[in-house]
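Bench notes, afternoon.
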Amino acid sequence: VTHVIVHLVFAQVGQVDAAARTVGMALITARADAVARGHNVLVLFDTTRRVVRTVWDLNNNRRADIGEKSRPFLLGERVVFGRGAGIPAFEGATTEWPPMRSSGNTPMLVVQRNGALDRAGVIYLTSRKGSAGIGDIDARAVRLDRATGRATVFLYASPEWRRQ
């Protein structure tokens, strides 16, 4: 039984780590597409389906329109967007999402034609257990740099956040 529990804990931590890297990969891909193609690329965070989706905003209207190319980046089934109960804020970023635009109710970043983001901020990821306040080994903060469009991943290792 102990072996099974340990395996499940490592599986959920692994999924949260992979999800943080996936967010970074979605941003790298969006930056490359925006700069190479000369138009904005939207990065949508579907928190219900656990998908990060990039959309080529061909007409630069900051909306995902029918017919615009889209690429999904899937997150693991154990991953939840959010900081988790009892986890302190990273660098003072207390909101779950940076002040983002949205497409419907979906949080969204805009990667501009020059590769910069429309805003900086922090996106939190954790597991379902972490979201419920059970443990703190799976909290991740993805810091978004506006000027470069890059994402840096930090993990919470009590009592502090550390770069991963």
